Amino acid sequence: MQFELKTFRQGQGVSSLVLRASSFSDARQQAEVLGHQVISVRRQIRWNFSRRTAQSFSVPLFSQELLSLLEAGLSLIEIIDLLERKSRHEASKKVLRTLFSALHQGYSFSRALEELPEVFSPLYIATIRTSEQTGDLIESLRRYLTYNQQLNIVRDKIVAASVYPALLISVGALVVLFLLGYVVPRFSRVYEDLGRDLPWMSQLLMHWGKFVGDYGWWLAAGVLATFVALVAAFMRPGTRAGIERRLWNIPAVGEKMRLYQLARFTRTLAMLVNGGIPFVTALEMVSGLLHQPGLRHGLVQAAQLIREGRSVSDAFSVHGLASEVGVRLLAVGERSGNLGRAMERVSGLYEDELARWIDWFGRLFEPLLMIGIGLIIGLIVILMYMPIFELASSIQ
């Protein structure tokens, strides 16, 4: 959601601030982290664009098409008009129609983008605004597309590494449900007719089968209701925030989450600095990428040190915003006068470390998961057939 805040800041007076946040309290907290005193907060609803519209419009694809047509020599307003006419999706047409209308009224491109805060992020708008000052929109679009591609590398690896375990868990859960919900109840009837004594674990399984046979529909309704309730609870921002806080408290997982956030933070900061945005201003713009309160607080303190004249490498080192190797790379970048390039190297360092960890975790977790699912299914099957084995032994 988009929120508009009326704030006061020393040296700037009263001003307006637009932030994306999950709730009013989260928006207020983000503004306070940036050093603003919040006067009022209200949810911003402009042009009545729904979440579905924002999600259906691809900013990277729009940027790629815009770049190609600008290189072909077309003017900006001609490009927007052309893209609108060729678009087949109504949501995209509405976005492009709004941009065309704003440009036709004489707005700058960045100002036109500001009319669509649900679609275009503040970082994207800032990149375009800086390019308008330097007159190099094409290079800024190239920089953004490169940044977007590199930013998604780690996320794509995480998604790819999660597909096979998720498939294993789904198939294993379906097999277990089939055994417990269909096969076991029928075995329980067979053993009930035999009237033989069963091992206690087999008795438990057979009692379960009898319970499913008697109350199967009620049980299925309860499982479905529980699943729906869990999904609804997970969709709530407060629930996800609580899960994230607990994950942060797990040492190994929390450290990798910290590294992932620092990689995104550093990569975005590098793009903004390379685009000509002042370093402290860029720091304020990327603060929303750091979700962990400790990192946010460290960013505010580091920004204050940099304003006071301390070097970026020292400020980041003191407040834990860079690893030891990252601090050294930043120091080299400061000495050479190419801090943006140094930050790209630091981000690449973090991403490589995360990629190695994801690969190692996948190689270890997938066999363990297969063994666990196999043991569960095997135990159920053995408990079902154990009375038959005993019956065969007694006959012999």
Overview of the structural elements:
The chain has 396 residues and is mainly alpha-helical. It has three domains: 2-43, Ubiquitin-like (UB roll) (Roll), CATH 3.10.20; 52-148, Receptor-associated Protein, CATH 1.20.81.30; 149-396, Up-down Bundle (Receptor-associated Protein), CATH 1.20.81.30. Helices cover 77% and strands 6% of the residues. The protein contains 16 helices and three strands. It has helices spanning 24-33, 51-56, 59-71, 76-86, 90-104, 109-114, 122-134, 137-194, 200-235, 237-248, 251-274, 279-285, 293-307, 312-318, 324-336, 339-395, and strands at residues 2-9, 13-20, 37-43. It has a three-stranded antiparallel β-sheet, with helices on one face. A hairpin with a 3-residue loop joins strand 1 (2-9) and strand 2. The longest helix has 58 residues, at 137-194. It is elongated. Residues 45-51 have low confidence and may be disordered.
How many domain regions? 3
Portion in helices: over 70%
Strand order, main sheet: write it out. Answer: 2-1-3
Shape: elongated
